[in-house]
Write a structure and sequence with these properties.
By secondary structure, the chain is α/β, with parallel strands linked by helices. It is built from eight helices and 14 strands.
Length: 334
């Protein structure tokens, strides 16, 4: 990497770190031009679309790279060594996405900021995780993130749980008696099984589902799952997390499945029948994701998720396009 590229990257990283204080649109255009120059795959994609980067003057004009490219291309902006790889779980026989990570400390920083923007300091929570299947394989960005959350908790009781659910519930009981905030984060099928086996009053606990039945249970809507969990655990709301292998940033929904994007993230929707046209707010379309934290890979991703974006920047995930591959971390159809 030449000194000029290194200097440009350092300046962009600094501005990304300052979000939301930084002008998001101006920064987005700067990141677009950086990746159009230094990402060979994206540069070729723009060339095939006959898009000149100098003529892109607003966010709706930016072409988004199809998410499927993560399955068969090494996506990098610049020339650098991979520290680790995040990979999707996929389904049996299916190809999986691979996201090259230049610096894991950057990922940790971004993930913490996304959570703390909505929920406050991590260290005040006892973090308990139910992530079976994800723990049983290598390369899960979700496990990597939650492990960091656990390490930043002020409570030694924080940790991952597989079969020792009674011990986990005992920890929750002790925390509640001592007024310690608890974050119970889990994949959908594990929380559903917990609700069936151990229904009880967990009022005051932040119960957060990350989506995904992973073939363990029949598919139900997010609304149905939340109703089951609310009834079983006597809580008014179930929280949701939206993240994926291809993103460094996450979004969180404190209630009703309406996601608040991280400061480094902006969500748009594109027309179902015209992938290069942006939909109006409030109209169902296919989600395009801007992730400023993906500076070293690609920040403009055309996902296969259907959704709605609202004028305040929040969004809903409503399902997936027909004929899309089903990723293991996919949110349930709603």
């Amino acid at each position: 990497m030449t000194n000029s590229i290194a200097a440009e990257r350092a300046q962009l990283m600094d501005l990304i770190s300052q979000l939301p204080e930084t002008d998001f649109e101006a920064l987005t255009l700067a990141v677009f031009r950086y990746q159009a120059r230094y990402n060979p795959l994206y540069r070729e994609y723009l060339k095939l679309l006959r898009v000149s980067p100098t003529q892109v003057l607003s966010i709706p004009q930016i072409p988004f790279l199809p998410i499927a490219f993560f399955k068969n291309h090494s996506i990098k902006s610049g020339n650098w060594s991979t520290e680790t790889e995040f990979s999707s779980s996929g389904t049996t026989g299916a190809s999986t996405s691979v996201h090259h990570v230049r610096n894991t400390d950057w990922y940790r920083k971004i993930a913490r900021k996304a959570f703390q923007t909505t929920y406050g300091n991590l260290n005040r929570y006892c973090v308990l995780a139910l992530l079976p299947a994800y723990l049983e394989r290598q390369g899960s960005s979700l496990v990597f993130m939650v492990d960091d959350f656990i390490r930043h908790s002020a409570y030694h009781q924080s940790g991952f749980f597989l079969d020792d659910l009674e011990e986990m519930l005992a920890i929750i009981g002790r925390c509640r008696s001592e007024a310690i905030p608890v974050l119970l984060i889990g994949v959908s099928f594990a929380l559903w099984e917990l609700a069936e086996k151990y229904p009880q009053d967990l009022s005051g606990v932040t119960i957060m589902e990350t989506g995904g039945m992973k073939g363990r249970r029949r598919e139900i809507t997010r609304t149905e799952l939340h109703e089951i969990l609310k009834k079983a655990f006597a809580v008014p709301h179930i929280h949701s997390e939206y993240g994926m292998t291809e993103l460094f940033s996450q979004a969180y929904a404190p209630r009703d499945g309406k996601f608040i994007p991280a400061p480094t993230m902006k969500v748009l929707t594109r027309e179902i029948t015209d992938p290069l046209s942006i939909s109006q707010p409030g109209k169902t379309g296919v989600i395009n994701m801007i992730d400023m934290a993906n500076l070293d890979t690609i920040s403009f991703i055309a996902t296969d998720d259907l959704g709605k974006v609202y004028p305040d920047g929040t969004f809903e995930v409503l399902g997936r396009l027909d004929a899309s591959d089903i990723r293991g971390c996919n949110l349930m159809v709603d």
